[in-house]
Amino acid sequence: MLHALQDSYGYVPQEAVPVLADELNLGRAEIHGVISFYHDFRKAPAGRHVLKICRAEACQSMGGNALAEATLRKLGIGWHDTTSNGTVTVEPVYCLGLCACAPAAMLDDRVAGRVDEARMDKLLNEAGA
Amino acid sequence: MKIYVPMDSAAKALGADEVADAVRREAASRGIDAQIIRNGTRGMVWLEPLVEIDQGQGRIGYGPVTPEDVPALLDGKLESLGPVDEIPWYARQTRLTFARCGVIDPLDLDDYRAHGGLAGLRRACGMSQAEIIKETTDSGLRGRGGAGFPTGIKWKTVMEASAEQKYIVCNADEGDSGTFADRMIMEGDPFTLIEGMAIAGLGVGATRGYVYLRSEYPDAIRVMNDAVRIARQEGVLGPDVLGSGKAFDMEIRMGAGAYVCGEETSLLNSLEGRRGVVRAKPPLPALEGFLGRPTVVNNVISLATIPVIFEKGAAYYSGLGIGRSRGTATLQIAGNIKYGGLFETAFGVTLGEVVNEIGGGTASGRPVKAVQVGGPLGAYMPVSKFDTPMGYEEFDQNGGLIGHAGLVVFDDTADMLQMARFALEFCAVESCGKCTPCRLGAVRGVETVDRIAGGDPAAVDLLTDLCETMKDGSLCALGGLTPMPVMSALTQFPDDFACHKEAAE
């Protein structure tokens, strides 16, 4: 249900909590607890595109940290932030299962491996950032 | 002419979709009658996108192929790798679980049957529950998710529990860095997981199954959903599995980005729509699992290995391996490595052989410093321990764990103090919060590592003590094993901790 809400609205609106609590015969605190537990569920809408950069060990071994820092610096934002023109939200992810072609990133549902600065610039360009 | 272009996400991440488009376009413009098949990956990730062309005389490989290479490829002017089956890296493997992965069209059930698929399930349909359990036990298969618990014993517990409803739950929350075997098999040969779950269902008397699949794997989710629909249409799943009169059906459930949900009891809570907090054991999930009913919770690779065991027989499978580690390990060679990918071979190959001979050393060309085996909760193994054979007990004796058999290689530029700090930081972010050693210990651990970095000599003892408490006092493996990478970094690479101290002095 929460996935469906996020698919439709892009985030899980606060207004949904009492509705869900009522439908499922659960307390509002319980619903809030579930939403806040998971990294995927957002309290506010994201940018038009979501860029996830892997921070896990395999990507670190191939310079993933430097890539992530450079990207955030270029965009002038921090983790979980959205660019001022509202196009891209950058989020950390811990492993995309692309560890043999690290470092990895994912723009919306599209994966990218062996990402260097040039490849990242291309991704950001496509996203309109 | 058949042209294979993988649709595995690692291949796509390296441009396989663009290559497939180019092949389609160029083939049409040349008037070539080509059938383009989007297969899984052969596991040789350094060659992806690996395109294969079959003109009736076997499959010839080319790779890595870029879209710009495609005209030359179709004109026969691109240098080939020769027959794919004869590429040494591929040929020297013992591919059982992954036998079909990269070979067949993942969603073509006829292709699956033609390559030995469903033979295991058909055999299981003619067996009693006790016979299915015995075959599984005799194979020596142990949980490939990391814990290494004997699969047959777990199934026996569930079989002997009496309940109106039992469940098979597949743990596909493959969150460990350096692991991708689950993703690869789900994208490249999804029917083998479905078949394995159906056999498990027949064995323990469960009629419903769930795959808990992480949301970070959108491609695997798509393929698995399609495969379940096809299997249902073709009577592999449903009220009458392969005409046996026995029922088994399953569905795919998506996670929501919580690492701890790979822990089985937290996974069950999440599957029930709750916060993914860990449950205290006992009761075992085998007796009180999903919705309080007896439940088999197995990893993807454990379940996906069941069909080949039933196809070839338990004796064949248990004939491979060393000591109490029977069968094959699906090694995932990753990180800073020249020839990375999935390599399936009998247990017993040494860590050094895997990293240096098979993996070809680091991608950067610099010396190897450490290999983290078994994910973020596994130990950092130094080069001095490279003679350790891949086996559950063998790794345990050397202060490590084999886990899901993922290996992440680091070159000599890695700072082990930072890696120890990262392990604790990760634990702090991903802790479910139920037990104190993990919830608070991880946060204090990060602070303590920072104190060591700042030159506080007393902090090393404090960190050691904290790790002991986390190890002994945590409910699940997240808190209990986070000390593993931290302490292995501290004890095996003391220089990285000492030089910070000296620098501060």
From TrEMBL, chain B:
Cofactors required: FMN; [4Fe-4S] cluster
Domain NADH-ubiquinone oxidoreductase 51kDa subunit iron-sulphur binding: residue ranges: 417-462
Record SMART domains: NADH_4Fe-4S
GO molecular function, one term: metal ion binding
CDD domains assigned: TRX_Fd_FDH_beta
Full protein name: Formate dehydrogenase beta subunit
InterPro entries for this protein: NADH-UbQ_OxRdtase_51kDa_CS (IPR001949), Nuo51_FMN-bd (IPR011538), Nuo51_FMN-bd_sf (IPR037225), Nuop51_4Fe4S-bd (IPR019575), Nuop51_4Fe4S-bd_sf (IPR037207), Thioredoxin-like_sf (IPR036249)
UniProt keyword annotation of Ligase present: no
Entries under SUPFAM superfamilies matching the protein: Nqo1 FMN-binding domain-like (SSF142019), Nqo1 middle domain-like (SSF142984), Nqo1C-terminal domain-like (SSF140490), Thioredoxin-like (SSF52833)
Record family assignment: Belongs to the complex I 51 kDa subunit family.
Family matches, as Pfam families: Complex1_51K, NADH_4Fe-4S
PROSITE patterns reported in the protein's UniProt record: COMPLEX1_51K_1 (PS00644), COMPLEX1_51K_2 (PS00645)
Entry superkingdom: Bacteria
Upper classification of the organism: Bacteria, Pseudomonadati, Pseudomonadota, Alphaproteobacteria, Rhodobacterales
Keywords: 4Fe-4S, Iron, Iron-sulfur, Metal-binding
